[in-house]
Design a protein that fits this description.
The chain is mainly β and about 80 residues long. Helices cover about 10% and strands about 35% of the residues. Strand 5 and strand 6 form a beta hairpin. The radius of gyration is 12 Å and the shape is globular. The chain starts with a strand and ends with a strand. It binds FE2/S2 (inorganic) cluster.
Length: about 80
């Protein structure tokens, strides 16, 4: 039996099942824009889903450049869009 956990993305609560990646949980919660490009402010989201493209990077508990498709979501995590 899976357990529901909650973390925040840009201050908003995201509920997901234990064991989901941050990226999967965000997409499942209709959070399609994970960051913007440095030049042009173009929105980015999941592209490869396997840790290759870095399009999904976010800030996790204050640590920048974390690939959200590779990191398991945990209860109480603080996730923010990358700048
Ligand atoms: S979606 Fe490509 S590295 Fe995460």
């Amino acid at each position: 039996m899976t357990q529901t956990i909650t973390f925040t993305f840009n201050g908003n609560p995201i509920h997901c099942e234990e064991g989901q990646s941050i990226a999967a949980a965000l997409i499942n919660s209709d959070q399609r824009e994970l960051r913007k490009t440095r030049f042009g402010d173009e929105p980015r989201s999941i592209f490869c889903g396997i840790g290759i493209c870095f399009d999904c990077v976010v800030v996790v508990n204050g640590v920048a450049n974390q690939r959200s498709c590779l990191i398991e979501a945990h209860d109480g995590m603080k996730v923010e869009s990358a700048q």
